[in-house]
Amino acid sequence: MKFSVASEIGELATVILHRPGREMNRLTPDNKDELLFDDVLWLERAQQDHDQFAAILKQRGVNILYLQDLLTDTIEVPAAREYLLEGALTPDHTGLTAAPTVRRWAEEAPAAVLAEVLIAGITKAELLEQLPGVSSMVMSSIDDEDLLLSPLPNHLFTRDSSSWIYDGVSVNTMRRTARRRETLNYRAIYRWHPLFANADFPLWNDGTLGREMSIEGGDIQIIGNGAVMIGVSERTCPQGVEHLAAKLFAGGIREVVAVRMHKSRAQMHLDTIMTMVDRGTFTKYAGAGMLPTVTLRPGDSPDEIEVRENAPELMHQVIAEALGLDEIVVLTTPQDSRSAAREQWDDGANSLAIAPGTIITYERNVNTNRYLTSKGIEVLTIPGSELGRGRGGPHCMSCPVLRNPVD
Ligand SMILES: NC(=O)NCCC[C@H](N)C(=O)O
To answer: How far is residue 163 from each of residues 56, 172, 245, 287, 399, measured CA to CA in Å?
Structure first.
C-alpha cells in the first residue's frame, strides 16, 4: 500500500481514527486537567458520536484504520510485543518485585487484551483479575482502583502524535507527559504492522527526543506545493520545528512556514485557529489575528537552513507564496467576538477536509458552518458535545495516511 499526504484537501482515501474506549472512563474531575481534558466524558455517547464521524467518512469512500486494531495486529509480532512491553510495562509502573510476573503474563496475554491495556492503562484490580495472587510491596500499598499504567485518553486525537507529511511520517515529540506514551504505540505500528513494515517511507522523526524538541501534529499542516505550515505554539517549540524542517529538506520538501502563535490552552495547536478547506482557501478564527511567520528553506549546504522573518501583516501573503499563489482566501465568520471565541473553543476552525471544498465539522458551530456553506463549502456535521470535551475536533481526531492528489 502507498502512503502519501501531499495536501490538506486532496480526496481522503485512508485515515487512522481511534474510537474512544475504556481510557475515557479513567477521567475524573480530579485528574482531568493532568490528562488534558476540560471535563469528564460520557463514553457511550462519545462512541455513538464517533461512529457518526466514521459513518460519514465511510459513505464518502474513506478507508478507516482503527488505531486499536492496528496496535492489536502489531502485538502479534513477537518483536513488537517485546518492544512495547519494554517501553510501557516497566518496573517504574508495576514495581520491581511484581515486574517479572506481570511481564510473563503480558508476554502471553491475547494481543487484543494487551492493546487495550496499552491504551486504557490498568488498575490494580484489573491486574489482579488477570493475575490472581500477584503480590508485592507496590500491590500492597495501593488501592484497587489505582492505576499501575496510566491511560491515554488523548489517543482520540490521532493526528497529534503521528503526522504523514508528503511521503513520510513524523511520530511526533509530545510536549505533555500525559501524551508522551502515545508515540510508543505509533512507533511499534509503523515498524512492525504488516501494512507498514513492508512499505518504504521516510520516518521524518521517531518521537524519542526530549520535550524541549517538542512538535505536535495539530501544529502541522501539509498545505501542498511541497510546503508545510507549522505552528510554534503552546505545544510545538521552534527547536522541534527546526529539527523536523532539516529532515524534511533532506527528503526533498521545499519550504516550511512557521507561524508564531499565542500560547494558550484554547489555541494549543495551529489547527485550533485555522484549517484548509479548499484550494488556496482557509477557515480562520477571527481572534487569531495576523501572526508573525518565519519562512524556512533549504540552505546552500545540507547543514544550512535559510531563514526569513516575516511581519505579522504578511501572514496570508507568505502562505500564498508558499502555495505558489498570488493570494489565499481566508474565510473568517462575521460574528461578535464572544460568539467567535465560543465557536473557536468548540473547535469551529478545526475542520477536516475530505475533498477540496468538502469538510467535516462539529454541528454546534452554527455561525461558522452557515458562513462556510454560504461561501460554497460543503459542510458535513457531526455531534461534538462529548468528543469535544478534550478540546479537539474532526481535524485533530484524524490522521490521514493517504490522500489523492489535487488536480
Ligand atoms: N490538534 C488538536 O488541537 N488536538 C487536540 C488535543 C486535545 C488534547 N486534549 C490535548 O490537550 O492535547
So the answer is: 22, 7, 14, 26, 7
Q: Indicate which residue's Cα is closest to atom 1 of ligand 1.
A: 218
Residue 261, CA distances (Å) to 223, 347, 404 in order: 18, 17, 30
The residues near 10 (Cβ < 8 Å, ≥ 6 apart) are: 355, 356, 403, 404, 405, 406
Going along the chain from its start, the domains and CATH numbers come out as 12-66+153-403 (3.75.10.10), 70-149 (1.10.3930.10)
339-388 pLDDT, tens digit each: 999 999 999 999 999 999 999 999 999 999 999 999 999 999 999 999 99
Q: Which residues make beta-bridge pairs with 305? A: 298
Pocket test for ligand 1, best of 172, 268, 389 (most atoms within 8 A of CB): 268
Place of cell 520545528: 241
Query: Which residue reads 495516511 in cell numbers?
Result: 401
For residue 92, pLDDT over 90 is answered with no
Concatenated DSSP letters of 231-247: EE-SS--HHHHHHHHHH
Active site residue 399: no
Q: Among 271, 274, 267, 322, which Cα is nearest to 294's?
A: 322
Q: Which residue has the cell 499565542?
A: 262
Amino acid at 391: R
- Structure-block grid coordinates of residue 322: 508558499
The residue from 228, 230, 288, 396 that is catalytic is 396
Determine if residue 335 is left, alpha or beta; phi over 0 gives left, psi from -120 to 50 gives alpha, anything else beta: beta
Q: Evaluate: CB of 272 within 6 angstroms of ligand 1.
A: yes
pTM over 0.95: yes
Q: Record the cell numbers describing residue 121, joined without a space.
A: 492503562
